[in-house]
Design brief:
Strand content: under 5%
Number of domains: 1
Largest sheet: 2 strands, antiparallel
Low-confidence stretches: 151-161, 303-307
CATH architecture: Up-down Bundle
Structural class: mainly alpha
Number of helices: 13
Length: 331
């Protein structure tokens, strides 16, 4: 138990330290390559911080623990919105990029509904896994293609605050940060999992809680670091992109490698909770957009500026409270 506790602490410290290097490197690469920060968040950052979930899912499926992998995917999405976005909003209010409403958020909602359709029958078949991965490829091809048509002015507006660092240094920081994120998260998850198993927690619950929170810590570290640095597009894009990876890539791993039979609670309790908090976040974004339109129409510039388009402490508290409420249902 002592070794497991030490491993958990070491992993957490490693995650926090490496996240800053990783985000700095990713932001520098975005500027040097002329890519929009949102695009980096949706692809490179999201893939890098979702790598622990994917590795855990593959390992769990091989070790005949596919329910842990499914719990990890669903639990990580709950943690990303309730914990990661909630805590980030409490630390540093995040401006809302309404471009998300046109592409990324509708895609996330479609992926959420689609995943629910596949697991509602209590199993994930090989065909389900193929469908999930095919959906991921199609979605990211669409996003990359649509982002590539942004104008130079739009790109310049997005990258003006990104640090201008040499390309070789940016790549060194990015690779070092990514490697340490994955290693640190692995150490943290293994230590936390040993603690949880020693306390007699079930495999599914371990996936939904200890493993999900552990593998979501890279998202928490990277998102908080991005927000504090002012790279809000990376912060928001990272949440959306990571949740898409969890639904379409992480959940596909057990389906492809070791198709599991799922407990009924996976859909009725865990998936429904994940979908609910996802729609809650979307509702907040839409509410802000409607308020912005209303204040502009009725000449309320001062009021609009006060509330204007941020996921702030109130929303962060609500999301965090919803996440805590899920744990009360789980236990």
């Amino acid at each position: 138990m002592t070794i497991a506790i030490i491993a958990t602490i070491v992993g957490l410290v490693g995650l926090i330290w490496s996240a800053d290097r990783f985000v700095t490197g990713a932001a520098g690469i975005a500027r040097n390559m002329g890519m929009a920060p949102m695009m980096i968040g949706l692809t490179v950052v999201a893939l890098g911080t979702s790598a622990p979930e994917i590795v855990v899912a593959i390992s769990a499926a091989i070790e005949n623990a596919s329910s842990l992998a499914v719990g990890n995917a669903i639990g990580s999405n709950l943690a990303n919105i309730g914990l990661v976005l909630g805590v980030t909003a409490l630390v540093c209010p995040i401006p809302i990029a309404y471009a998300l409403l046109k592409r990324e958020i509708p895609i996330l909602l479609a992926a959420t509904i689609g995943a629910g359709f596949l697991i509602h029958d209590g199993e994930l078949s090989f065909l389900d896994g193929v469908m999930l991965l095919s959906g991921l490829i199609a979605i990211f091809y669409f996003l990359v293609n649509s982002k590539s048509h942004e104008t130079d002015a739009e790109l310049e507006a997005e990258i003006e605050d990104i640090p201008d660092i040499p390309s070789d240094k940016a790549w060194r920081l990015f690779i070092m940060g990514l490697v340490l994120l994955i290693i640190s998260s692995h150490i943290l998850v293994m230590g936390a999992k040993d603690i949880a198993l020693a306390l007699g927690i079930s495999e599914l619950v371990v996936g939904l809680t200890v493993v999900a929170i552990g593998t979501s810590l890279p998202e928490l570290a990277a998102t908080v670091a991005s927000a504090l640095k002012g790279h809000h597009d990376i912060a928001l894009g990272n949440i959306v992109g990571s949740n898409l990876f969890n639904l379409l890539a992480v959940m596909a791993m057990p389906a492809l490698l070791n198709p599991p039979k799922l407990d009924a609670a996976v859909f009725s309790r865990d998936y429904v909770s994940m979908a609910a908090i996802t729609f809650m976040l979307v509702g907040m974004v839409f509410a802000h957009k409607l308020w912005t339109r209303y204040s502009a129409k009725h000449n309320l510039p001062g009021m609009a500026k006060k509330i204007n388009s941020t996921i702030g402490r109130v929303e962060g508290t609500i999301l965090l409270a919803a996440y805590v409420a899920y744990f009360s249902i789980l236990f």
